[in-house]
Design goal:
The protein is mostly helical. It contains three helices and no strands.
């Protein structure tokens, strides 16, 4: 397994997931709810790819492969964690926009 490749996959897909979740919020604010739902789905797809890379690293470490923890690896974990948080909040914010629209 190429550790650096998996780390970069976590960063790239985590960043994409976060950007798509933020786009979904913007779309909901513009009352484009179908587009917002599609952006959330794409965000979920990107999060899955980031999680898959993370899982590969965890499995490698569990199998006692020599994996050195680096600042870049910590950065990748931060990207994944913040993407998950933004994705969860985006869903709630979109629901709030839907409720406001109906009032």
């Amino acid at each position: 397994m190429e550790v650096l490749q998996e780390i970069m996959s976590m960063i790239a897909h985590g960043g994409e997931a976060k950007s798509l979740a933020l786009l979904a919020i913007q779309q909901a604010r513009e009352k484009k709810f179908q587009e917002a739902e599609e952006s959330l789905k794409k965000s979920d797809d990107a999060l899955l790819l980031s999680h898959n890379a993370h899982t590969k690293l965890l499995v490698a470490e569990a199998n006692e492969e020599d994996i050195n923890v680096t600042v870049l690896m910590m950065h990748a974990g931060d990207h994944l964690g913040s993407a998950e948080t933004v994705r969860s909040l985006a869903e709630e914010i979109i629901l709030l926009h839907k409720e406001i629209k109906h009032d």
